[in-house]
C-alpha cells in the first residue's frame, strides 16, 4: 500500500505537462499550445522548400527569446495581446484555429493581415514582429551563413604568423 501511495504521489511529475512551453521565458507567458501555434505561423511565413523551413531552424524559439529579452515591457504586452488577437482573428475568419487551417487558408489569412484589412493594432504588431524575427532567425542561422550567403569573418587572406622585417 505504501509503494502504491508513493507511486501515486510521484506519477504526476513523470508525466509531461503539455500546457507548458519548452522555453523558460522571464517576462512573457507562453504555453505549449501557443508555442506550437508560433511554430506553425513561422513555418507559414518561411516554409520548407529546397532550404530548411522555420520549424527546422526553430525560428519560433528565436522569436520568443528575442521578444522576452529585447522588447520593452510595453511591446511585450502588445505582442502577447496581439497573439490572442491573432487567434480571435483566425477564429472569426475561418471558424477554426490557425493550426487546423490548410496552407491556402493560412496564406489567405496572412495576406489579409499584410494588406491591413480590418486588423487590430496589436494583431498587426504581433504578426509584423513575428515575421521580422522569423526572417532574422533564418538569415542568422548556420545554414544560411554557410550555404546561402557564405559569411567570411575577414575579407581577403589572413596570415597569423608572419615574420616582421626589421626596417631602419
Please provide a written account of the structure.
By secondary structure, the protein is mainly α. It is built from seven helices and no strands. Helix 2 crosses helix 6. The protein is elongated.
Could you outline the blueprint of secondary structure elements for this entry?
Elements: H1 2-14, H2 32-45, H3 59-70, H4 73-94, H5 103-114, H6 121-139, H7 142-148
Mean pLDDT metric: 84
Main beta-sheet strand count, sense and barrel state: none
Order of helices and strands: HHHHHHH
The number of distinct structural domains comes to 1
Shape designation: elongated
Distance between the termini: 92 Å
- Give the percentage of residues in beta strands: under 5%
Helicity level, as a percent range? 55-70%
Rounded to an integer in angstroms, the radius of gyration calculated over CA atoms is 23 Å
Oligomeric assembly: single chain
Total DSSP E strands: 0
Low-confidence stretches are none
**Helix and strand composition category:** mainly alpha
Number of helices: 7
Compact overview of the structure:
The protein has 168 residues and is mainly α. It has helices at 2-14, 32-45, 59-70, 73-94, 103-114, 121-139, 142-148. Helices cover 59% and strands 0% of the residues.
Amino acid at each position: 500500500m505504501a509503494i502504491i501511495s508513493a507511486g501515486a504521489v510521484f506519477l504526476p511529475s513523470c508525466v509531461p505537462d503539455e500546457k507548458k512551453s519548452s522555453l523558460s521565458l522571464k517576462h512573457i507567458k507562453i504555453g505549449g499550445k501557443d508555442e506550437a501555434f508560433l511554430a506553425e505561423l513561422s513555418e507559414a511565413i518561411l516554409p520548407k522548400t529546397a532550404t530548411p523551413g522555420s520549424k527546422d531552424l526553430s525560428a519560433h524559439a528565436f522569436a520568443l527569446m528575442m521578444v522576452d529579452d529585447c522588447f520593452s515591457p510595453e511591446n511585450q504586452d502588445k505582442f502577447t495581446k496581439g497573439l490572442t488577437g491573432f487567434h480571435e482573428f483566425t477564429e472569426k475568419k475561418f471558424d477554426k484555429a490557425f493550426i487546423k487551417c490548410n496552407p491556402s487558408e493560412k496564406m489567405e489569412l496572412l495576406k489579409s493581415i499584410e494588406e491591413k484589412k480590418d486588423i487590430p493594432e496589436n494583431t498587426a504588431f504581433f504578426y509584423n514582429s513575428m515575421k521580422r524575427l522569423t526572417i532574422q532567425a533564418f538569415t542568422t542561422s548556420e545554414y544560411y551563413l554557410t550555404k546561402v550567403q557564405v559569411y567570411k569573418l575577414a575579407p581577403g587572406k589572413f596570415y597569423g604568423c608572419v615574420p616582421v622585417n626589421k626596417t631602419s
